[in-house]
Design a protein that fits this description.
The protein has 611 residues and is an alpha/beta fold. It folds into 3 domains: 201 residues, P-loop containing nucleotide triphosphate hydrolases (Rossmann fold, 3-Layer(aba) Sandwich), CATH 3.40.50.300; 243 residues, P-loop containing nucleotide triphosphate hydrolases (Rossmann fold, 3-Layer(aba) Sandwich), CATH 3.40.50.300; 74 residues, Helix Hairpins. 40% of the residues lie in helices and 20% in strands.
């Protein structure tokens, strides 16, 4: 086998307390397509920076095969100091590289090359940085959240471009569909160590769950062995001193091993504060129109939003998604048309830019406003530290300023703020940015159980498929400017009905384009990958706990029936007889339901494992 292009050996790094990386190993071979996954804060970005030789580890070595080139896309690119975007991209080229490719990539990403980096938006900065990373066609591409701030056309273009490169790829991304389409191997960074699965990313979650379940079984066995040895220490130490000292030493070793074992980081505990239910009608729009100068953003749009609807709003950057949301939520007045709101609508918003978070604000101030140590969540008073822990913040972070939080931590903080407020209408603008896959799973389940109404703006195709019941799409490029059309189902359903995904908005509609072949996304829809069915978190939990529930109900029922069988009970205590009769009936009903639920879930589990 050929030598790897890039190797990290025995990498260790500690920031402050617990080690971030311990003996981590990574080998990247020619043509590899690797998804690097792990919880927020597990060290993924740090490992990529070590691979890019930006961060030096405390221990270990980085080896690059002779003559090989490595390029890195940071999560938050800094392109300041260059007169134009083209100058920034060309500065990353070597003498033998094709300088035409720099201009080509910028154009493909919707930039001209003449833009002043000081005036660019976050999405435009990301596009310029992508062009700089891709232009040299390096041997290894290290990409940290490349889809952040990109719209759907840009994400699908990037997938196609990366698929055509000869470069080996190491990708960090929260976008499941992006990883499913590109990754052929998965590297899981967990508690400082690396595990590798050389199978497609679609198999990662079941592989990870199997590992964690085996760890839990091993931990349970160790706990039982420690308990047995402790019992021996208390009651069996006598006689053979040498053998006893050996056993005491083994017990100490087991206790130490148990103490030092790093367990999986806790799970985010999300709870939505529900307000009183809104009326059946939430929003009714008739003939809405909005223009900015000569440009029509919304034209003759009519829509009815009812309680329990979950709508996704999609379109290329600049199509007017945020404007449409502001119109539907009453934050902006239309130029024409009318909008009517239902009774008792209480809205909470999670904005894309995290604008509600001031850099100097501490976690406590962000959650409580700074005036108290408590906040009210779902009608109950919670201490701020307790609520912080639900979102994986430690008590020591209570005074941490927002400016030093990672992107994922800021995302969790915004979720914590939004979910604490009572609502029956929740508006989420790009909520998936910077969140890890496990947190996204829980957010999906939370929204699925939310009895209110959801408006979601997102470029995450998998998240849209899992959450929304209909998709509102900008049709300005296919029909007339300002046109929005509602399609039933998720993103994949919309593609099937529409015949294509979301197309990029033309930068200059008035300028004629040279004749060229239609983009693949417009001639034929990209087949959505089959969604691998799996049990939800609630179903898995129920499947684990129901046998114990059934056993407890059976025992309770047996005790009640023994007492009820007393022939003289009615004559002696009629009230007790009546109480037992009702209690037995209720227990039987509960037992029957628990058995039915267990059987249904067990059949579902077998079906999923079989297919």
């Amino acid at each position: 086998m050929a030598a790897p292009v890039l190797t990290l050996r025995d990498i260790s790094l500690t920031f402050g307390g617990s080690p971030l990386l311990e003996g981590a190993e990574l080998s990247v071979f020619d043509g590899d397509r690797i998804a690097l996954v792990g919880r927020n804060g597990s060290g993924k970005s740090t490992l990529l920076k070590i691979a890019a030789e930006i961060v030096q580890p405390d221990k270990g070595e980085r080896v690059v095969r002779g003559g090989a080139t490595v390029r890195y896309l940071p999560q938050e690119p800094d392109i300041a100091g260059f007169p134009t975007t083209l100058a920034y991209v060309e500065a990353g080229l070597a003498s033998g590289d094709d300088h035409y490719r720099a201009q080509y990539l910028l154009n493909e990403l919707g930039l001209t090359g003449e833009e002043d980096p000081r005036t660019l938006s976050g999405g435009e900065i990301r596009r310029a940085a992508l062009a700089r990373a891709l232009a040299p066609e390096p041997d290894v591409l290290l990409l940290d959240e490349p889809t952040n701030h990109l719209d759907l056309p840009a994400i699908e273009w990037l997938e196609t471009e990366l698929s055509s490169l000869r470069s080996a790829l190491v990708l960090i991304s929260h976008d499941r569909r992006f990883l499913v389409d590109l990754a052929r191997s998965t590297v899981w960074l967990d508690r400082g160590q690396i595990r590798r699965m050389d199978r497609p990313f679609g198999e990662f979650e079941s592989w990870r769950d199997d590992i964690l379940e085996q760890e839990e079984r091993d931990r349970h066995k160790l706990d039982r062995k420690i308990a047995m040895e402790e019992d021996w220490v208390r009651y069996g130490v006598s006689g053979r001193r040498r053998r006893n000292m050996r056993r005491l030493g083994e017990l100490f070793t087991m206790r130490q091993s148990r103490k030092e074992a790093r367990r999986v980081t806790g799970t985010v505990q999300m709870t939505l504060s529900e307000a009183e239910a809104s009326g059946k009608l939430v929003v009714e729009a008739k003939g809405l129109a909005k223009r900015y100068g000569d440009r029509s953003i919304v034209e003759n749009f009519s829509f009815r939003l009812t309680r329990g609807d979950r709508i996704g709003i999609v379109g290329p950057n600049g199509a007017g998604k945020t404007t449409l949301v502001r119109l539907l939520t009453g934050l902006e007045a239309p130029d024409a048309g009318s909008i009517r709101f239902g009774a008792n609508v209480e809205m909470v918003t999670l904005d894309q830019k995290r604008e509600g978070l001031l850099p100097t604000m501490t976690l406590k101030e962000a959650l409580t406003g700074g005036s108290s140590d408590t906040l009210v969540v779902n009608g109950q008073s919670r201490h701020v530290v307790s609520y912080m822990k639900d979102f994986l913040f430690g008590a020591e972070q209570i005074g941490t300023p927002v400016s030093v939080l990672s992107g994922g931590e800021r995302g969790r903080l915004m979720l914590a703020r939004a979910l604490a407020k009572p609502s029956n209408l929740i508006v989420l603008d790009e909520p998936t940015n910077d969140l890890d896959l496990e947190t996204l799973d829980l957010l999906e389940e939370l929204l699925a159980d939310y009895p209110g109404t959801v408006i979601l703006v997102s470029h995450d195709r998998d998240f849209l498929d899992r959450v929304v019941t209909s998709v509102v799409v900008s049709e300005s490029e296919r029909l007339k400017p300002g046109t929005w059309v509602d399609y039933a189902g998720g993103y994949s359903d919309m593609v099937a009905q529409r015949g294509s995904g979301v197309a990029a908005r033309r930068a200059d509609a008035a300028k004629p384009e040279p004749a060229r072949a239609a983009p693949a996304a417009e001639t034929a829809p990209k087949a959505a990958p089959a969604q691998k069915r799996k049990l939800s978190f609630k179903d898995r939990h129920a499947l684990e706990t129901l046998p114990g529930t059934i056993d407890a109900l059976s025992k309770d029922l047996a005790k009640l029936e023994v007492e009820f069988a007393d022939a003289g009970l009615y004559a002696r205590d009629p009230q007790r007889f009546e109480h037992l009769s009702h209690a037995i009936s209720a227990k039987r009903d509960a037992l029957a339901k628990a058995e039915e639920d267990w059987l249904r879930l067990e059949l579902l589990r077998e079906e999923i494992e079989a297919g």
